[in-house]
Amino acid sequence: MFKIDPAANRINLLEVKRFTELGFSERKHLQEWLEHYPQALAQGEGDELLIIQKEFDGFDDTRERLDLLAIDKEGNLVIIENKLDDSGRDVIWQALKYASYCANLKKQQVVEIFQRYLNQKAQQECGEAAQAEKLLLDFLQADDLQSAQINTLKSQRLILVAAKYRKEVTNTVLWLSQFGVNCQCFKVTPYQAGSELFLNVEQIIPTPEATDFMIGMMAKEAEEKSASHEQKNRHTLRLAFWEQALEAFNQSPCTLFNNISPTKDHWLSAGSGISGMPYQLIFGKNEIRVGLSLQNSQAEANRFVFSRLQAQQNSIETAFGDALVWLPLPDKKACRVQYEQTVDGYNKANWPDMIAWMVEKMTRLEKVLNSPLDQVKSELKVADLGKVADD
């Protein structure tokens, strides 16, 4: 670091010092400086800190003391640990212990801790103590304590302050960040120029430039984990549903699915007698379906079968007893004929009715399509659209 001399138009190198060389101590000096100017540890607008206690020892069954306890604008408790010239090996362990202790503090306890701090300051200054709850609500811009978000689950932050960090400390901080632990390392360096003393406070982990990136990555990871968890739940749910559905089909006149095993997919297929054109059951969150899916690798064959069946639409629907949904899907290779029902599919209480509906509708659909499909199968052979007539 350099000091600018405007008169001489020169810069002069500042001499790096150790705190102990200058006679400064951790508790009497560094801690006092940060207590009275916590914004030295703030990174940008909106990252303000409010000190609510120092030398806090209000933990059950332990006499340990954390250096400074603060709260940020989001209502997160911030544990600040100072180590002067050397971070030491155990600073991470200390900070994590304090964070775990603080994680159990309720809103009213936070207010009481802050009030004790204000009372102590007022006593030292021979003044009247401010009201902790009012100052806290003003800082958080909250209307009342009930609506304020204070010390919510997994919201605690760690701030480490030292002139030099050991590798085991920085490595551990970087590793913890992968698990969403909000831990910052600030390097504090004293400088001297003649009789003048200077202090540089610099965030080194994470770097200010990397902070947004890390926050974005953690949010992305949380989203992916949530999506993965939801997918696993859906797979488990589908497997359970198909087990019940197949059991019901095995006890019904419909033999299509007798040799089919339950899966984690949202669909089950059974042969119709024509290759690549199976009957399908669909189980979704909001609907269930029975249908015929024309998904042969040859689009011409799918369109051929679809057009022949649709030509008999009136007689097929009359025999089925209701209108079917005919989907030629011109932009895709496949075509579908289906019948659907809106349901609350993931509510297991609805499953017996849903399965009964599937059994009934698939039984009727197979019955009305059996003869038309036999006829179309013969026409496919004559049409010579490829080897699609055997299944």
UniProtKB/TrEMBL annotation:
InterPro entries: DUF4268 (IPR025364), tRNA_endonuc-like_dom_sf (IPR011856). GO terms for molecular function: nucleic acid binding. Residues 237-370 form the DUF4268 domain. Pfam families: DUF4268 (PF14088). This is DUF4268 domain-containing protein. It comes from Marinospirillum celere.
